[in-house]
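Dissemination and training. As part of the outreach component of the grant, students in the summer workshop were shown how a complex can be specified as a set of sequence lines and then modelled as a single object. The example used during the hands-on session is reproduced here so that future cohorts can follow it. Participants entered these lines:
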Amino acid sequence: MRQDGLALPRHTHLSDEALVALVARGDETALGALYDRVGRVAYGIAYRILRDERLAEDAVQEGFLAVWRAAAAFRPERAKASTWIVTLVHRRAVDIVRREERRRAEPLDVAERPDAPDPAGSAEDAAWLGFERDRIHAALRSLPDAQREALELAYYGGYSQTEVAERLGVPLGTIKSRMFAGLARLREVLDEAGSEGSWTPRLTS
Amino acid sequence: MDAETHELIAAYALDALDEDERARAKEVLATSEEAREELRSLTEVAATMATAAVGPAPRPALRDRILDAARAEPQNVVSLDERRHSRLAPALAVVAAVAACAAVALGIWGASVSSERDEARSALARERAAAAVLAHPSSEASLTGASGRLVVGENGDAVLVASNVPDAPAGKTYQVWVIDGGRPVSGGLFSPRSGAVAVPVDGRVRDGSVVAVTIEDEGGASAPTGEPVIASSPVTLS
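and obtained this result:
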């Protein structure tokens, strides 16, 4: 990625949020730069849900076009720009999977999936993604199985909470509480992992 | 927040709600800053799960495909928040009763949209233009589907003024279309506030233009995907 030699020098110093502001003013190269930054992860989640290249590409394209159209409505105080984009693509992918009734995403153990080669990504991107993945896999693995299963069926499978409950033969109320507890626990674990891995100076003793 | 609200927000962050449940979540979010903050936080957590979704890399052609599609699409959307905070809206919440009007022939949906991208106009400029139109209207067109009217200025700037517009379903938005010769071009997105809207329409209307409103997925569509819920009678420009 980042093969756009012209966009790179112009945009590398800009935050994702600044790029969204440029997109709101009709700057296509800024949209390209956002794709270079977030497209890999956005496609990854779309593919995970849809298990089909063409449908995953459709979801990513629809998501980025929604970014293009709605950039002026983006509010940085509500979400990071990358989160906003991923959320838009995720929503599109979920809509598509529910429409297509493509229910292929079984609750695989994410940690067991091999990393696919990414010939287009830079070494830095790959290293960062690898680090993030390890961190999140570890966090997911630390959840109770029932909570992780509910989160994965919902987020990776595109199932509604009602469908998750039916699928697992568990009362809806139980699924609701597992999803919230799982997400809240994930938040805690990631916060802890983030602070352990940070360079924040600590007093020893 | 009670446990039920926490659970609703978590499921919303995971996109694990069906339409009805999404609507309920949006109601809660509309009235609770605490709920919005929780959604912000849980959405960040959910999005980290995307980072962990390892899969094949996208084909390099996808980048070009997205940029080509963006280029081919008028980008004429104004911040929903800008509109929501418009000073115009409250004053215009009370609108004239609409003449009962037969269904408007709207031509063929799905025609290609303009390949020319409108110059991005700032929200402020739009509001000024809208205020000018409302101060010096040149003509008005009646609406079906909502109480209100389409107010048109001399130069073809138009403002859609309507009341009794219900909130769009969860995950959906209202999208305005200017239709000339059966060809719809996006006129922007909007959300009603307390049922009332005063929406400056992107682009210009011409003699015979029809302005229509459809319900689309959040972020809008490049062409209408459903039947209009609001439509104006054809515009008359002198």
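Confidence is low (pLDDT under 50) at residues 1-9, 107-120, 196-205 of chain A. Students were then asked to discuss how this feature might be tested experimentally.
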